[in-house]
Amino acid sequence: MDISSLTTKEVGNLGESVACEYLRRHGFTIRDRNYVKKTGELDIIAEKEDTLHFVEVKTVLAEEFPLAECKGEDVYDPSLNLHQAKVRKVARTGEWYVLEKKWEGEWQVDGCLVWLRRRDGIARVSYLPQIV
Questions:
Q1: Sign of torsion, CA 119 122 127 132?
Q2: Where are the domains of the chain?
Q3: In what order do the strands lie in the sheet with 106-117?
Q4: What is the pTM of this model?
């Protein structure tokens, strides 16, 4: 299925769904999605082993998946959008979530990078634990 015609919002939503499935397959329970406060939005709130994970998802459409050995090529890296200011906003919003839900355990901010191949919608995921 060619996904070239999807809007930026649709690509982002698809990337978040892919990230949720990835997390489920790796033992996480999805507690919430798209939690919004004045400080920002949490894409995915997941739980694993009594720790809350606030997961910021960055998705990009790609012609082909980047190869680990592609150093020096002009391949867009979605982690570039996980800059310090964005991560701080996620952490602040996570603090709201912890207070609102009266969570007393550990929590952390994670990243999840999703590449969606334009011609067929196949995804590649890279999970980045504890980006704060």
A1: positive
A2: 8-66+74-128
A3: 29-37, 40-48, 51-62, 106-117, 123-128
A4: 0.88
What is the fold of 8-66+74-128? Trna Endonuclease; Chain: A, domain 1 (3.40.1350)
Tokens representing 32 are 């919430």
Instruction: Quote the CA–CA distance of 51 and 106 in Å, as a whole number.
Output: 5
Q: What is the chain's pLDDT, residue by residue, as a tens digit (132 residues)?
A: 789 888 999 999 999 999 999 999 999 999 999 999 999 999 999 999 999 999 999 998 888 887 654 454 445 566 667 778 888 999 999 999 999 999 999 999 999 999 999 899 899 999 999 987
Structural contact between residues 62 and 117, judged by C-beta atoms closer than 8 angstroms:
yes
